[in-house]
Amino acid sequence: MSRIVIDGLTKTFGETVALDDVSFEVPEGEFVIVLGVSGSGKSTLLRSMCGLTAPTEGEILLDGEPMVAPRPEVAMIFQQHNIIGDLSAYSNALSGGVHRSGFLTSVLQLQDTAEKHRALEALDTVGLLDEAEQKARRMSGGQQQRVGIARALVQRPDVLLADEPVASLDPGSAQGVMRYLRDASEERGLTTFCSLHQVNIARKFGQRFIGLRDGKKVFDGYRDELTIDVVDEIYGDIDTEGMFVDTEATRSADSEEVPP
Length: 260
Prior knowledge:
Blueprint: E1 4-13, E2 16-26, E3 31-35, H1 42-49, E4 57-62, E5 65-66, E6 74-77, H2 89-94, H3 98-101, H4 103-107, H5 113-125, H6 141-154, E7 159-163, H7 171-188, E8 191-196, H8 199-205, E9 208-213, E10 216-222, H9 228-235, H10 248-255
Parallel strand pairs: 3-8, 3-9, 6-7, 7-8
Antiparallel strand pairs: 1-2, 1-4, 4-5, 9-10
Helix pairs in contact: 5-6, 6-7, 7-10
């Protein structure tokens, strides 16, 4: 059985069609990158998959069960991090388990030892254990996004969704965040969806790619199938000449270990 089944997913906002009859299946443990320009339907797809946006038509099945509301086994990482700047990296990560401990226990940080260990382990997974007590607002954008990944991991999901997690980062930081995201997914056997617009980074880290254009699925395949012609079909009139070429910063980041 596929971990995720999307069947005829359509979402409209008034006269605007954000998703138009999108269907696909994803087995357990696959790392999928969703490509497309801004407004192509990427965020709507991910928000529908985590239960934050209700489909107009069609359905989403997770392990054979309809996805009609947020569920703890599906975690979401947002583009703008959504972490609390005045809290430490550790406190932000620890809040990922609020559905188990309850709101008041989470606010007062009265979680049991096992839960606190999960937060530290998650920070270690994303290379931030030594920064656990650092206030989030004093961290770089890449570090903040890694805190967001750690918080999602503390949720102990089976499915991880990341909506443009590196959109505002420089190429080196973007590669670092994507490497931690991929490695955490592989280590924990997660089924992961990540929306991106940078094709060069997508090709480096993705296993499978789904291309959206004007709310329609125009591509579903693997790295060797993601050709220039396919990219042109996904991105339309946008200049894609440099999308397969790493910048100097990207090449440099790729040749070095990701710093803690």
